[in-house]
Amino acid sequence: MGSNLREILDNVCYPEIFLSFLNDKVKNKIGSKENAILEFYQKFTCLGGDPVFSESLCKELQKKFFQQGYELGRIRRRNMNWRLSLDIPKNNTILLSRDILAAVDLLIGMKFGIGTLDDMNHLKNKRICSVADLLWDQFGLALVRLEKVVRETICGAIGSKLIPTPQNLVTSTPLTMTYESFFGLHPLSQVLDQTNPLTQIVHERKLSYLGPGGLTGQTASFRIRDIHPSHYGHICPIDTSEEINVGLIRSLAIHVRIGPWGSLKTPFYEIDERSKGGQMLYLSPSREEYYMVASGNSLALKQGIQEEQVVPARYRQEFLTIAWEQSEKCIVGTRLERQAVLDLGVLAIAYHEGKIFYINTNKIILSDNGDTLSIPLVMYQHPNKNTCMHQKPQIPWGRCMKKGQILADGAAIVGGELALGKNVLVAYMPWEGYNFEDAVLISEHFVYEDIYTSFHIRKYEIQTYMTSQGPERVTNERPHLAAHLLRNLDKNGIVRLGS
Length: 499
Prior knowledge:
Elements: H1 5-10, H2 15-27, H3 33-45, H4 55-65, H5 74-84, H6 97-111, H7 131-159, H8 166-169, H9 173-185, H10 197-204, E1 206-208, H11 222-225, E2 235-240, E3 249-252, E4 257-258, E5 264-272, E6 279-283, H12 285-288, E7 293-294, E8 310-315, E9 318-323, E10 329-333, E11 348-349, E12 354-359, E13 363-368, E14 371-376, E15 392-393, E16 400-401, E17 406-409, E18 413-414, E19 417-418, H13 445-448, E20 466-467, E21 470-471
Parallel strand pairs: 7-10
Antiparallel strand pairs: 1-3, 2-3, 4-5, 5-6, 5-10, 7-8, 8-9, 11-17, 12-13, 12-16, 13-14, 15-17, 18-19, 20-21
């Protein structure tokens, strides 16, 4: 590791234990380098029998333990500094000898009952791998492929005694093929569900333990699938997949944010008896452990009465009760489940206050002190589920708008509110045998008044071919049919109503 014995003993908390290891090594002295490699390999791989020394075995150990540097990354460096109480700069992302010695000290202390083990299912030991992280990994893979192509091009040019140009050396083919393969073949790449705004936002807020580098439905244990206390306020405990993927695909809770380090942060309302008013805090699972957390219903208690009010709370994964009047500091969680999301992203909203200067079906222009802002509108867009995405202006020309006000409704939005479906009266009763067994009888009132009518956009294509008599021609005429058979069709070929 680049450290001598004196440096190691000066940087550990239990030097006598290290000296005892050295004394055991003197007693059990290994005669040669080959025997030392064999013994280390046997203990490292936990293999029985007598392995035979070879150069491949030596190269394998060299590759695993004697590289020039091991890249931790900024997130691993931060976690290691926090767990091992180190003060190594965050920009130093290489594994150092201090890290290994501190980890050994921690394990020795746990052997003597000092310290606690890590819970691998706790959210503080997990992070969100976003789509940006996946794309960054694919970009690194594309650069490796590009390097290989450049080397092969240079070697070929040297062999043929040609001078390569930058246009011949660097091409976008490796990058294009890598990203096409990622979006088309990656197990986590899915077509966004755009049936309505609610299904879209639910699909976008899914979390998955599956995929490359993750778990599988066959190998995931029950402890991983189960609800963990750290999920409170961060992950919805109810919304999950069924059958083999139960507990492996989850949804974010309402108001949850993803921090810069990939941790989930949820809002809490801090209440302190020394301060009159509370404040909102976004806490990660690691910081949440240092607070007493109560449920959101505690905000409804009457804080003006003199009697003590006992409310349940949670502190360091344990549940307890606290007196509301005598609590030194307590934070209140703001809901658990993912019920709705404040901004569905389908409304046209004024980004700053101003006056409606121009409005049509394609855009809305806001004017404020001579500055104009053009807000485009979605016009009959064709989403993935063949539904209709359309934004309709809801404000007249010349009105003054404030920041955040709604300018146009979107799909499944009426008056700025989500409008999905309609409540109807359902009767569980027989009706002249029409609803026998599993049949369902509905009123024709639904059809005639378009109670559940929805718009769908489908795109159809027809191919024309080159024949021996010339190219095929697309026309609205119906050849080889008598006029009597076409009497109920209009000029566009659509059947007339009532025919």
